[in-house]
Amino acid sequence: MQTTLAERYRNTPEGDAAERILRSCVHCGFCLATCPTYQILGNELDSPRGRIYLMKQVLEGATPTAKTQLHLDRCLTCRNCETTCPSGVEYGKLLDIGRHIVEDKVGRGVAETATRAALKTGLGAPLLFNTALKLGQSVRSLMPAFLKARIPAAETAGNWPAARHTRRMLILQGCVQPGLKPNINAATARVLDRLGISLIAAPDAGCCGALAHHLNDTEAGLAAARRNIDAWLPHLDAGTEAIVMTASGCGVMVKDYGWLLRTDAAYAEKAARVSAATKDISEILTGERDALAPLSALGSRLSAKKIAYHPPCTLQHGLKLSGSVEALLTDAGFELTAVAEKHLCCGSAGTYSILQPEIAAQLKTRKLGHLQAGQPELIVTANIGCLTHLQSGSAIPVKHWVELLDERLAAS
Ligand code: SF4
Ligand code: SF4
């Protein structure tokens, strides 16, 4: 696509990246067919191609309006369009740049600014979030059904094995996951412990920064990235093999640290190293599949539990990891039901379900219809946001897939 950037964006890191991405789009429109917001709203401006045009206009010097911002806000950042695009357009990176510029120029009203600030502070600070969650859980039984559905019942984590192995990996605990579903990381630690790997946490690491980053607070997102890099590097220097992600939404962000800090002289190299060491738990366990073979044998003797799997967009479109979770679960003897429209977002998308509740609710209903069609006993997924979003509308329990694997190993 022919592009002539406005003077102020020329020869800047963002301008150069945006120009390269804009030029790679050939305007074919293939991406419209798999864009969830285009499917629901039917407006070209709520499609990838339409949003690319809007961002192109802004980068060429047009003044963005509240309408421009609305169409960019409605994007789920699911990156389904990237998977579909035959020209390899890096839409997600362009959207980050475009949203940031539009935010600077258009701003937000008082109420919206306050909501976004509360989300950043409340969800990105584990202590604050966990305190509020515990308070909510203590009065959950008295709540009306619609509110009850938004606050999951309190859960326990189970045992986290002591660090006894020479092989070690780090875990990103996450900001909301330890409070909402503490068993996910503990189950991961137990699975890895059985494979001879100890899972440890760096006390100074915290939120991956995705929350702030996607709410256009770039500096807060980068500050979180630098803090985590400082917390993890000494462990990598000491021989820790990998940084394990159990929430694919966090995994995409940490894998992007290298890109996001590419112009930071003090952190560029360190960030690239951390990104290279970062692995989703499905990648780790696929690499350990030989050691998991006894589990496969056990799985074939057990009666299969019928489950439906929802691959998060961050796993399939962001991290480009498709098929590995399904293979691991099938190895372990689970029967996976056929699920239509696997490529489509469930509507969770970080804070999207709070900021764009109507579109998010439509996508959730559509997704749950497909997941429940095969009458599974359980629904499993790989990201805490999808898990809680789907559970809020489902009578069928929704879990992280690694918890099932842990249960199967415990039964062996
Ligand atoms: S599929 Fe790719 S090249 Fe075609 S319009 Fe969409 S983003 Fe552009
Ligand atoms: S990221 Fe998702 S919602 Fe946004 S334009 Fe691409 S396909 Fe559509």
Overall residue-averaged pLDDT value: 92
What is the helix tally? 24
Number of strands: 8
Give the end-to-end Cα distance, rounded to a whole number of Å: 57 Å
Topology:
Layout: H1 13-24, H2 36-41, H3 48-59, H4 66-73, H5 80-84, H6 91-106, H7 110-124, H8 126-138, H9 145-148, E1 167-171, H10 177-180, H11 183-194, E2 197-201, H12 210-214, H13 218-237, E3 243-245, H14 248-255, H15 257-260, H16 268-277, E4 278-280, H17 281-287, H18 293-301, E5 306-310, H19 313-318, H20 324-331, E6 335-336, H21 352-355, H22 357-372, E7 378-381, H23 384-391, E8 398-400, H24 401-410
Parallel strand pairs: 1-2, 1-3, 3-4, 5-6, 5-7, 7-8
Helix pairs in contact: 1-6, 3-6, 4-6, 11-24, 13-16
The structure holds iron/sulfur cluster (2 copies).
Question: Explain this structure to me?
Answer:
With 412 residues, the chain is an alpha/beta fold. Among the domains are: 7-106, Fumarate Reductase Iron-sulfur Protein, Chain B, domain 2 (Orthogonal Bundle); 292-410, Rossmann fold, CATH 3.40.50. Helices cover 54% and strands 7% of the residues. The strands form two sheets. It has a four-stranded parallel sheet with strand order 2-1-3-4. Strands 6-5-7-8 form a four-stranded parallel sheet, sandwiched between helices. Strand 7, helix 23 (384-391) and strand 8 form a beta-alpha-beta unit. Helix 1 crosses helix 6 (91-106). The chain is globular and about 65 Å long. The mean pLDDT is 92. Bound molecules: iron/sulfur cluster (SF4) (2 copies). One iron/sulfur cluster binds next to helix 3 and helix 5.
